[in-house]
Design a protein that fits this description.
The protein is of the alpha+beta class and 60 residues long. It contains three helices and two strands; from the N terminus they run H-E-E-H-H. The longest helix has 16 residues.
């Protein structure tokens, strides 16, 4: 598959508007830029996600 499906890039989320919902559209390029900026700003050692069931977490 060359392109992601719409369900992988667009999400319906709760919102404080008349409808009670809005659309959130993924922006992969912006996500990468935000991660690179965080690294430049000194947050490069921070974990992006943590799996509480991983062996590495259990050793801490």
């Amino acid at each position: 598959m060359r392109r992601p499906g719409a369900d992988e890039t667009t999400h319906v989320v709760r919102a404080g508007n008349a409808c009670g919902w809005t659309l959130a559209v993924a922006d992969p390029r912006l996500a990468v830029e935000l991660l690179r900026k965080a690294q430049r700003d000194g947050a490069g050692a921070a974990r992006l996600a943590a799996d509480t069931n991983s062996p590495q977490q259990a050793r801490r």
